[in-house]
Amino acid sequence: MPAVRTDFSILGDVVLAPDASSGDLFRSESHAIRLLNAPLDAQGHVPRLIAEVVGNADSLKSALIEHRAILAEKLNVLSLVTRARFRIDRPIRAIEWEPYADERSMLVVHQQDARYPPEPTLNDHFLLAANTLASADIPAYVDKAATYFRYGILDDSPTDQFVKFWHALEIIAENDRPSDRVQIYCHKCRDELVCSHCEAKATRIPLPKDAIKQVMERIGVQPLGPVLARQLNARNTLMHGGSSAGVEAKCKYPMTDIVNELGGIVQAAILIAIRLNHAADLAIDVGSDLNNGIISGIMELKFRYEGSEAHPPEEAIPKPQIQLVSTWNG
What we know:
The protein is an alpha+beta fold. The chain contains 8 helices and 9 strands.
């Protein structure tokens, strides 16, 4: 496996002190992570950090993914000790990092939001619908659920989107949860459980998943059983530390589709909870993809360094520029 250096832009609340040229975040036999301050902005502030990750990878391209995962794990710890935000903004480049190599391959990366430029579809029908909903007497819990629905739309990660959408769904479900006790059934034959002594039927307080099921029934989710099972499996996997891959393995469903499905359920649940008699007449988008994505432009090149040091200094590394152009015209 070749040695690779990957550079990432990090947005955060704190940067290195002015007199610190760099700082080691992590160092082991297999990987090392060094943090540096980015160049000053027009106001003389350090706007971000640069993380240099050095270690083995299957290839230059895979290093952008493998090293990002390692960096994210170490930034979790840095947030824990600093109580500060650190977000991997974007990858910058990946460079072959074998000592004393005369020629090296390099990938230069440019990324931008896949939804840029914005879609020109915001019309008077949507504005009228928003105005009508904003003028309604919306219960506080419904407004809070709508807030988390918007947070879910804003997130870049499908797992983070799922968590935000699920929180919105739980807010709706918990406030609508029935207070009456429900019957307990035999898990094998599904017959009602009855006390052998007094013949009283066994009951229990409704569980949170009962409330979730009730919400799905109210909005007409079909087929209810498979959808409910899939969403609960995804929720349980993520809430117990699982990953998107774990969710997909358990649900046999793409994570992006699960997020879209949950987002649609939450949107419908919120609209029904507002209880507008004429809500069906409003212009509501129910078909757009809720998943966010990134478009990447990657340039591959080779460069030579014949100096006496094991690795080229920064000034000896080429710095080509990439620009991605997308438009709604033509």
